[in-house]
Every structure is written in C-alpha cells, then in structure tokens.
Amino acid sequence: MQWFRQLFSRGRRYDDLSVSINEHLEEKIDELMEEGMSREHAERAARREFGNVALVEERSREIWQWPAIESVWADVRFALRQLIKSPVFTLTAVVTLSLGIAVNATMFSMVSAFLMPRLPGRDAGSMVVISGVNPNRGFQPDTNPVSAPNYLAWRTDNKVFAKMAAADEFRTASLAGRGQPEAIQYAAVSPNYFGAFGTFSQLGRTFAAGEDQPGRDHVAILSHGLWERRFGSDRSVVGRTVRLNREDYVVVGVMPAEFSLLGFTPQLWTPLTLTAADQTAAARKDRSLYLFARLVPGVTLEQARAEMATLAQQAEKDFPETEKRWGVTAKTLPDFLVYSFGIRSALAVIMTTVSFILLIACANVAGLLLTRAAGRQKEMAVRASLGASRVRIVRQLLTEGLVIALLGCGVGLLLTYAGIHLLRANLTFNDAISAVPLRLDSNVLMFAVCVSLVCAILSSLAPALRTSRIEINADLRSEGRAATAGRSHSRLRAVLVGGEFAMALFLLIGCSLLVRGIYLLERQKLGFRPDHILTAGVALDQARYSESSQQIAFVRSLVSRLQQIPGVEDAAIASSLPSSGFGTVPIRIKGEPELPASQQRVASNVVITTDYLRVAGVPLLRGRAFTEADDVNAPRVVLVNQEFAHRYFPDRDPLGKQIRVDSKDRVPAWSEIVGVVSDVKSYSEETRVDPEVYQAFLQRPVSYFSIMLRSNVEPDSLVPALRQAVAGLDVELPLLRVMSMEGVIDTQKNGNPVFTRMLGIFSFLALLLAAIGIYGLVAYSVGQRTHEIGIRLALGAKGSDISWMILKEGLKIAAIGSSIGLVMALPLPKLFGSIFTGLSVSAPELYPIVLAAMLLVAILATFGPARRAMHIDPTAALRIE
C-alpha cells in the first residue's frame, strides 16, 4: 500500500522539497557572502549555479507516484481557470461544438438503431438467415423466401446447422374476441422458432413440439405490443381464447418487448402447419418461408454457404421446372436484417452531411482558439522562459481544447436527448420504422465521447502548434508584437473560414439537389387521378370464403352497397392500388417461342372489377374495358398498358392477340387482349413504368384486395359509411389501412418529408456556422488593426473607405472558399442523377443562386465589424500601443 500512502502525502512532500531547496540556496548564499560577495550578487550567483528552481522542483517530483496524473489534473484546473476568465469565448466555443456534436450524435442514434440492430435471444449474432436467390435478379434478388419443400429437405439433409426454423412472416388475419375486430399482421412459425433464437416468453410458454400438427395448431403467442394495446397488459390473458380468422385459438404465451427483428413486425405468432400438399412439386412455386438457423459449433459461414449451394444444386437437378437457376445463400442475422431493410444509402447521405457540419464547427472553434492564442504570446513566452518545453505548452493548449470539447459534449448530449425524442416522433410513417428502438444508449454515448475527442484534436492542434512557436526574447521585450503574430494567426484563420465556406456551399448545393430530386419525384404524373378516392384493404379468410364463387358473391354485394352510399360516385375493387408496387408474373405470347428463363417476359398483374378504370381515372386508349359479361363462363380477356404493347408488340396491334399469365394461384389459361390503357407508374416514389396486365375479377377472383371509392365529398367523411357497409355483410371482417389515396401516396414516401426537413435544417446550420466564422475572423481583424485604422483616419481616410476595406477582406475569403466549394460540387448532379433515375435533377441555375446566397451571408456577417471600423476614434486608436 506504499503507493496509496504516497498518493495522499504528495502535498506534504512537495512542501518539504521546496523548503529543502530554499535551505540549500540560503546555505550557498551564506557561503558566498562569507567570501566577500554582497547579498545581491551572492543570490544571483547561487541561483545561477543551482539552475531553474521551478524546473528542478518539477523534475524532482517525478520520482514519486502519479506525476503524469497530477500534471494532467493541473493542466485541467488551469484550463478551467482560463475558460472561466473568458466567459464569452467559452460560451461561444461550447455552443458551437455542442451543436455539431448534438447533430452527429442524434443522427448516429438512428444509424445505430438501423445498422446495429438489437438482436433477441441468446447469442443471436451467430444466427444465420437462409434465403433464395432469384435468377431474374430485380431488387435484392438474394433475399427471397424459400418454399416449404426446400425447407423440409434442407432441414434434414444439411450437416452445418444445429437448428433450422421457418417463418411465414407476412400473413394478415382478422383478430376478434375482445373489442372490435381488427386486421393484424402475424407470422406462422415452426415450433422450434423461439428455441432457435434461445429466447423465452415473458408470460406462459412458447410452442411445444407437435403443435404444428392439424388439430393441435390452434394456439397463439402474443407480441408484447399487442398484449399491451389490445389486452391492457392483462396477465390472465394466458389460457384465454381469441378469434383468429373466425377460428378459436388459445393464447399460450406473451413474448417480451425485446423480441423483435428489424423489418419484421408480427403482432402474433401461430404454429406453421405443413400438410401433404406443401410437400408436392407444385408447392415449390410458393416461396414464402424465411429460414433461421444456428450454426454447428466450429462451422464457418463460408462452409454453410457451400453446403447450401450443394443442396440448391440438388434441388435444381431433381425439380428443373421450378428450381432452374434458383440459388440459395446464407447471411448472418444482423447482415440480413440491415441489408434487406435497404436503408444504408439514406443513412450514408445523412451521416456525410452531419460530418460536414461537425467539420465546420471544429473550424469555427479552431478560429476562436487562434484568436485567443494571439493575445497569449507573452504568456507562452514567460512559460517557455521558466523551462516549459514546446511539448508541454502544446499539451496545455490541447487540454484546454479537450475541456471545451467535453463541455460541448455534455451540452450536446442534452440536445441529443431532445433531438432523439423529436426524431422518434417523426419516424412513424410505417410499422417497420416505428418498431425500431431509437434511444440514447451506450453506443450513442460512446460515439459522442469519441466525437468530442476528435473535435478537441481538430480544433486545438493547429492553434496549439502555431502558438507554441515562440521567440522568447522578442515576445518578452515587445508589448506590440500582437499585430505581427496576429497577421500569422489571421492567415490560418482565413484558411479555416475559407474551408468552412467551401464545405457549406458544397453541402448546400448537395442538399438542394437532393431536395429537388425528392420534390420532382413526389410531383411526377402517376398516370391516374388520386384525388377524392377513399381506399381500404380487405382480406377474405379461408374459413368462410374458400371458394371462388363465395369471393365473387361477396364482392358483387359489397360494390352494390358501396355505390349506394351518399357522396360516392362509383366503387371498384383491385388486387393492388395504383402506383403502390405491383407483383410481377411470367407471361407467354401465343404463337411465339418460349424464351429462356433469363429472358423470360414478365409483367405486373392487377385484378380489377368493371368500374376500376373510371374510379381510378385511368384512360382507355384502344379497344374496350371489362363488362359484367366477362365472367367465369365467358372467354378469358385481359387489358394491357401502353408499355406492355410497346415492349412486347412493338410493330403490331396487340388487340386480339392471345397471352397467358402464369400466376401461381391459378391454372394458366390463354386470354385475349381486348383493350389498351394508359400507363400508370409502378410505384409513386419511382419513375419506372412496367408492362402491366389487368385481369377481370369475375374471371379470376382473389381473396385479398383493396376497395376504391370515388367521391364528390371529402374521402375521410365516408369512413363510417364504408365500415357500416362491410359490417352489414360480415360483422367479423375488419378493414385494413382505411385512408384516402393521397394518404396512401404520402405513406409511401417512406420518410421523404422528414428527410427533406432534416436536410434543410442541416444546410441552414452549416450556413449559420460559416457566417459566424467569417464574422469572428473579420471582427478579430478589425480589433488587431485598430491602430492601423486610426492612422489611416488621422491621415484623412474616409469612413466609407475603411468600411469597404474591411468588407472587401471578408468577401475575398468568402469568394475564394465558395469557388472551391463550387468546383467540389460540380460532379453532384451526375451522382444524384444516378439515384433519381429518369428525372432531370441537374439545375444549372441552382449554382449561381447558392453562390449569391453565400456571398450575401458573407456581406451580412462582415457588415457589423465594417460599420464599427468606420466609427473608430483616431485619437483613442493611436494611444493603443
């Protein structure tokens, strides 16, 4: 415990050391005085022989424990005293850095939530997701679900996975039993699903072996959110019966709130029941299962991929019709969740943007430190004359920067807390986004601390190195060297402020182009009329509507009721809402040879009732629309869009031609093209138009569809009547996502309005920081040149000349920085053009507008110091030095 005693006895030891040195000096002085010297000469000779007392004391202390810690603590205390002496400087620097840190930490909290998902269960990082690879490519072709026959085969044939579970994640059902029926998203999972993750229920239990067999499969597990919302957190819910798709299910458990996967938001789980039909060759067309597996200890991911590739090749060999060219891959659970969510690019843009803001903030603080350091040249010279090395001085100045950065970190974390709550309130545009846990956690705290350290280095290193270059004799002799030193410091500050303007202009142009691209995308013509349309989803369950005739009868009765609602002009049914993303199906043209799988013709497929074109406002260009006569007993007919005609019938009239739609839920049959309609954008947030085939609902009924009501009143006012009409036909049938068509399109923006607002805020913040930077530089320059300005005024210079001289200095720096930023921004239109395919994002007029705005900001920031320079009193200015 010797070190512990030394830790608390340092003060006494240091006092003893000082006393010993003084005693030694006194003895030497007495000896010299006895030799005939005067006391003044004896003291000078004794001190010259002994050396620098302060330096000897400091080096002597280093033989004891904790000299480094004490030295650092002394630097921190000195830095705090210096900052307290300059409250305006300290407040400005801390606020500037806190803004940069807060913006970065807030955005990192979002990045952390999406790119570092919190995984449920035990050692979930070692979990693997097995997905199919679509040979036809498309969007994320390697994240496709797999078929039930492949799951059953791979579960037993592989040697690399200890457990393999399956989940059909995106089912929709009607939930009744307490309150009004509602449509929920649920997942059907294999009984070992929760065991594969190594997780347990909060209440009750998870599924038991054998509960995937018919007759034992009517059990359910509630999500924590559904348990809180619908059942009021009632712990007695376990064992209670609920109605799911008109059948009774017993609740056996409730999962904890932590059990959630990024992008997967089921509110309830049921056992996945696979029958004999799910093991046939025909079932291989139905790819709906996500496979979650745990690696055998010692097996690598590459080995697992090789094993699954071999099994996929075997499936292709045994079932070439359905498995030809289909592959399989394996990704770790975190990689799969982040990749399939598809948010990496947007987060990269956001983090790049806020990084520029942080750099601008650091440049501002560096400029403030340079300004402050210019007035401390004599102080540094005194420290150097007392024996302080350049490294010691640099360390002291870096410590001051670190203290400022840590204070900024503290204030920034308070702002981050508020920013996260504000961000969380705006990220509610879909269930998957709302389910992401966005909070101030250890990752964000660690990031904020690291950012603070980086800020301390970026903002303090250059000023510290510049200030540590000391000419001791000159700095100690002269009281007026500040001007010379100031010019050197001003040059470095000018470089920093010029860099701020370059980054701010680059950021402003980049954000403007992004906002322009989003603006053009949201205001493109979609090909139909979305105004005055009310929509709602309906999912007919198999318990009551298993037959096509039952589905047709329900839709006919429903449309008839809806057309009688006051304010409704017409009603229609569609399997997919326009511009909401259509599913594609393979098609064949009669009389033309079948193409290889890689060149297969595909088209979007929509099933509609007879009044759909009129309700949606889609023009019929040629031929005829569907009629009530186009029923199950009539010859099959279809409509196609212009893109279909141009792509597959480029040199002939498509009317009267026969095509076959190979949908997996119906036996393919040849159909005649009887009409050509105008193009509708495939998705409201994209510019592409795909070939599209419309089929008549009476000839191909579907169990999942959307209602569309064209109204002459406010669409939302029809919601009660719509619910009443559906309940009049089936009281247990809930409606999904009841909203206007314009509301559907707004929902599909996937946060674009939030993204646009954030970019606008970031651009404004960058511009504000750049303005503060040039204001500080010019104001400091005026202060340094007060004596010079006084001489000019005394010699007859006009105030306007002085003002123009100061204004010209600020504009020169702003112009140089803006020019550099302009050159940096030249490639941006091409870059964003690749993001917004089909839109002309480039706007040449944007560059001079942004440049003019930057120069206007520079003028406004320079005006105050220039005005003060005009009113300097020459007499007072000449007395300054």
Write up what this structure looks like.
- There is one protein chain.
- The protein folds into four domains: 2-65; 141-341, no CATH class; 344-523 and 751-879, no CATH class; 542-732, no CATH class.
- The protein has 881 residues and is α+β, with helices and mostly antiparallel strands.
- It is elongated and about 130 Å long.
- The protein contains 30 helices and 22 strands.
- Helices cover 52% and strands 15% of the residues.
- A hairpin with a 5-residue loop joins strand 3 and strand 4 (182-189).
- The strands form three sheets. The chain has a six-stranded mixed β-barrel with strand order 3-4-9-6-8-7. A six-stranded mixed beta barrel has the order 14-15-20-17-19-18. Strands 13-21-12-22 form a four-stranded antiparallel sheet.
- The model is unreliable at 478-486 (pLDDT under 50).
- Helix 19 (482-522) packs antiparallel against helix 29 (846-870).
